Amino acid sequence: MTRPLSSALILLAAAVTGATLVGCGSDGLCDAADLTDALAAAHVGDTVTVGECEVRGSFTVPAGVTLTGAGSTSRLVASGGPAVLLTPGREASTLSHLAIRSAEASGVFADGRGAVAIRNVRIDASKGVALRLESLGAARVTDVTLVGPVTREVAASLSPMPDSADIATHGLVVIDSTFVALERVNVSGFARFGALSMNSTVTWEGGGASDTLGVGFMAQGGSATVRDAQFCRVYAGLRPYPAYGVVLTGSASGTTERVTLCDNEGYGLLQNGGLGAHTDLVGTANREPAVWVQASSDFALSGAGTVLSDNALAGLVVVDSTNVRISDAEIDGSSLATRIVDGGSVRVGDGVHLVVEDAAAVTLTNVTLSNNTRAGLLLDFLTGTPDGMDLRSVTVDGTGDALGAIAQDGGGLLPSGAWDRNITRGGATVANDAALVGRLSVVGIVGPMFLPVAL
User: Fold this and answer.
1) What pLDDT shows up at residue 442?
2) Of the candidate ranges 40-49, 162-171, 375-384, the one whose mean pLDDT is the lowest
3) Which of 91, 175, 304, 406 could form a Cys-Cys staple with 64, CB 3.0–4.6 A?
């Protein structure tokens, strides 16, 4: 049974397919009131379909209802609130095949202990947050594109702390959610975070966050598993601190597989506390180290596809961490960069830079370090000893003044012996290591003032 609702040719069908919205007016606009009425009349399992037209307003999708369209030609423009308030349900409330534009605080907002699904949706946000998911039991976000207005040129003109009332600051925000699965989600053009997860469990497969300002993706607390994704060209802009491709902080547990971190105006990946396991990680041409680890109780970098190449300061830095395992990695081409330490500055350009404290266990297996400007491997036993080191099949090579593998403690350089018996030096590093006199400078931690602030 059907009944006419307006000149926009909106039909509400009480059949198995639920509520269906089709057609539009002669001006290409659907009537917002009719869409609101159709959604209000829909029940669990019903579908409301937007035709090839534009609808302006703020629309609430009831629990268990699907709002869908014809793709890019079905457009929702936020007015007076989020374009879509997606009410979680015991059966997933769904948003699909729509294009959304928003200059509001949120483009799409879902909040509650039920489930939602969002697929084949593009959200263009000029202000606020494109997609916000909060306190959800489960969410699946598939084939979604989130776009903000920030380009490299725009980033260079924004204030260090952009306001969401003026520009889109966050692409995706996930807060206090039990499980959120992202599949082929692409984020770009936001002024603070491409994606932010707080105290949530998130998986992200395919896609990534690039061409954005500040941070590509940050998990603060909870856990994040990321596979086959890219986090590249994250800009620093006018901020007094660097950009980050990925940040894991607040005791977040992070796992990555086949993730690429490239051309970021700062760090590739920062692990600040928590646990980390990263397989086949590629980090290239970042203006700070490709990977920086500090205060981690368990960290592993492994896989024959692991390549950290042409990064500034170091390929990998590990400070104040325990249970560190690095295997099957190639780290090369680290360039010299200046770092401020205790009121002074140091120049560092190492493949692997390890500051080992207390009785930290550190294992390097099948690691190749080549053409790193200062040293292939630096082991600094600030308060620890070599007793916890396990180095196997480590190869270092270099030209010119490059050092190979250096170990030192508070008293100075450690002589060649048991600690480097499984290290093979090549090229100029053989003579350079033997001739070195005096300790090498080391870095400290990334201090709190340089860490991203979530909201």
Assistant:
1) 94
2) 375-384
3) 91
Question: How many CB atoms neighbour CB 16 within 10 A?
Answer: 8
Q: In 3D, which of 285, 184, 198, 203 has the Cα closest to residue 243?
A: 285
- Quick one: pLDDT band at residue 360, thresholds 50, 70, 90? confident
355 inside domain: yes
CB–CB of 101/76 below 8 Å?
Answer: yes
Question: How confident is the prediction for the chain on average, in pLDDT?
Answer: 92
How many domains, the chain?
Answer: 1
Tell whether the model's pLDDT for residue 248 goes beyond 90: yes
Least confident of 139-153, 252-266, 296-310, 381-395: 381-395
Residue 185 inside a domain? The answer is: no
What digits encode the pLDDT tens for the residues 38-71? Answer: 999 999 999 999 999 999 999 999 999 999 999 9
Closest CA to 403 of 366, 441, 365: 441
Q: Determine whether 125 is exposed, middle or buried from the number of CB atoms within 10 Å of its CB (0-12, 13-18, 19+).
A: buried
For residues 55 and 72, is the Cβ–Cβ distance under 8 A? no
Query: Picking from 7-21, 122-136, 424-438, which range would have the lowest pLDDT averaged per residue?
Result: 7-21
- 266 and 290 Cβ atoms separated by less than 8 Å: no
pLDDT higher than threshold 60 for residue 2: no
The total number of residues written for the chain in this structure:
455
Nearest-angstrom CA–CA distance, 187 and 217: 10
For residue 278, tell me if it sits in a domain.
no
Is residue 131 domain-resident? no
Spatial CB neighbours of 119, under 8 Å, sequence gap ≥ 6: 94, 95, 96, 97, 140, 141, 142, 143, 144
Range of the domain at 380: 287-439
- Read off the pLDDT band of 27 (50, 70, 90): low
Q: What's the gap between Cα 86 and its chain centre?
A: 25
Burial class of residue 359 in the structure, from the number of CB atoms within 10 Å of its CB (0-12 exposed, 13-18 middle, 19+ buried): exposed
Q: What is the spatial distance between Cα 19 and Cα 55, in angstroms, rounded to a whole number?
A: 17
Nearest residue to 57 via CA among 37, 39, 84: 84
